[in-house]
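Explain this record to help learners:
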Amino acid sequence: MIKLEGYKLPQKANLRIAIVEDNNTARLNLRSHLMSIDGFEISSYSNGKELRNGLRTVNFDMVFIDFHLGQAKNGVEWIQQLIEAKAFKPSMGLFFVTSDSQPQTIGQILDLHPDFILIKPYTMKSLATNVRHYLSARRSLLPALKYMDANRNQMAIHYVNEQLDKGVPKRIETDFIKLKGRLLIIEKRYDEAISLYSSVLDKANGVLWAHWGLIKSEFFTGKWQECQKMLDRLIDESLTKEKAYEWLASVEIGRKNFIHAEQLLDNIRDTDLTIQATRLKVLCYKMQGKTADALALLEKKVQSNLSIKERLVDYAMELARYHLHVAELEADGDNSQSVSAARVMLGKAGRGISDRQSEQQKDNMLALSFLLDDDKPRAERIISESSHSLQLRNANVSSMVDAVKVWFGLGHLDKAKELLEACDNLMLEQESHIDSLIANEVVAKAEKSLGLEKERAISVNEKGMQEYRAQNFSAALAHFYKAYCTFPGVPAFALNLLQCLGDCQQSEYKDVTVEKLLHELDAISLSDKNLIRMDSIKQKFKMIA
């Protein structure tokens, strides 16, 4: 039995609850209902900003949050922001309250792994039943949750496995399995997660959290054909339709099928596109050279969110970044109009920024705008001040790439390369499939524009070799794929990727298949050493088959 040192399990009566609801009557009713269940300590807030301030002084045990919070960010967006800022801890129970059962809404909520979704109008009985079930499961799961708070996820997995082996009560067994799946994904143990979620679905095919866990695991393992098959089946599910289109578009973008990805995203109305889905669609337009369409979509999003300060910041920053992208394309001519438009958007965003990460993004883009204006002294002053407080742990990859471009343009090559190395590590840690896709495209474009493809490919391939020698085949596969894509045509990169696929017993990784690699290698002249290695790899695949 694991001993959880330094933690005292709180008594149920002392549990602290936060209610986030913009409707005063609904907030008071929920508070009254919860108080009748037990003597909780309850704090009430009308929006996510108030909750964020409350979390600075109180570690809540449970958070009840409405999806629609008036003319501001919705509940999902606020929780995502709080998680990214490390303010919302894994040990905090998450209950979503909503009267909106639209597929787009439920899909967004499910992405956050809530403990329960309470659909209005709810009954006192349903609320009490679910709260009591959660409290029962929480008492048994709390040691694992506290390990997660301390970023000791391996210990949390060990605890969960130990309890499952001993045998937990049937009524909370699903809660343990659900948390284990979440932990395996956090720790990038995707093959184990695939096995767990598949086992759940074999017993009950309608379990939505298992479907999305399996899809996410297969996506990050590079098993995109299996991922696509599951998504095709979920298109007809009323509660998952929009989210399925978003994931299918992500797969097609990964395969560089941008036209098809755009068509899939067209199934979601522009007004219903989340900030992440908007970024996906803008990426589709960008890769097809549809500048007017990209700008029109972002401008529409900015205009429709002028009264929602927190969301306006996000869209204004995205529009500013796209104007800078256009300015880079116009670098040999007159790019003053695009640079000026970017600064206008950065000014709009700046008036609503309330966190250091967003401030840093704005500063890095501002520095890039002055570099494009050939005002190097001003660009260096801004980027130097921004870099003093750069915290890589919470950094945004797109923002870091902006900084890379500035340092490179100023002649500080070592600094630029150092940040690109840090981007590699951050991309491997991405938990959002959309962030991962966009980050890869942004970094690849930067490497190409700066002429660093070969140097970076060699560096990434060496990281893959280190992981391979340590038998961390999944991590090695990601590095070998990156090297292969960054600088195509190098036999060693293709052979490394092929061999690692054999060790992982996979026939595909993202948009690359074993057949494709074998065809490429058969078409080029290989050294005697590489021919022997190729023959050995082919034999391995025959044995697997």
